[in-house]
């Protein structure tokens, strides 16, 4: 990837600072920016968000535990072994958060 110029904070108006927009490393690209969003949820929304995060963590831990106990590092195999069990245990959690192969690959 080539270099890009972006407006920089703390410099005079209109002055651009060159930055590397992404460095190629193997099969992936490095992150080129982080966005911080401050949420102001209602009490009900905060409760739902906390429940979702707690259930997602429980699913992650279950898949990680299985991967470490069995020595399995294949994301698809971990998905196949845990999908139905976790969907039954956490029916309100969106499937993309707890049982997708992409999720399972990040464990090992």
Which helices and strands, and how do they pair?
Elements: E1 3-7, E2 16-20, E3 24-25, E4 28-29, H1 43-70, H2 75-89, H3 95-98, H4 101-105
Antiparallel strand pairs: 1-2, 3-4
Helix pairs in contact: 1-2
Give a short overview.
With 108 residues, the protein is an alpha+beta fold. It is built from 4 helices and 4 strands.
What are the key terms here?
alpha+beta; 108 residues; 48% helix; two-stranded antiparallel sheet; 2 domains; 4 helices
What does this structure look like?
Strands 1-2 form a two-stranded antiparallel ribbon. A two-stranded antiparallel ribbon has the order 3-4. A hairpin with an 8-residue loop joins strand 1 and strand 2 (16-20). It has helices at residues 43-70, 75-89, 95-98, 101-105; strands at 3-7, 16-20, 24-25, 28-29. It is built from four helices and four strands. Helix 1 (43-70) crosses helix 2 (75-89). Mean pLDDT is 74; it is low at 5-11. It is an alpha+beta fold.
> Regions with pLDDT < 50 over 5+ consecutive residues?
5-11
Q: Please tell me the total number of domains.
A: 2
Described by strand count, sense and barrel closure, the largest sheet is:
2 strands, antiparallel
Terminal residue distance = 29 Å
The strand line-up of the biggest sheet is 1-2
**Helical amount:** 40-55%
**Continuous helix count:** 4
Principal-axis shape: globular
């Amino acid at each position: 990837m080539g270099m890009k110029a972006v407006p920089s904070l703390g410099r005079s108006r209109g002055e651009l600072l060159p930055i590397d927009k992404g460095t190629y490393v193997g099969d992936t690209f490095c992150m080129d920016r982080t966005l911080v969003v401050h949420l102001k949820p209602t009490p009900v929304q905060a409760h739902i968000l906390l429940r979702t995060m707690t259930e997602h963590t429980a699913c992650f831990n279950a898949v990680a535990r299985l991967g470490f106990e069995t020595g399995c590092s294949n994301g698809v195999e971990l998905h196949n072994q845990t999908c139905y069990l976790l969907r039954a245990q956490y029916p309100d959690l969106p499937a993309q958060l707890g049982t997708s192969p992409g999720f399972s690959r990040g464990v090992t």
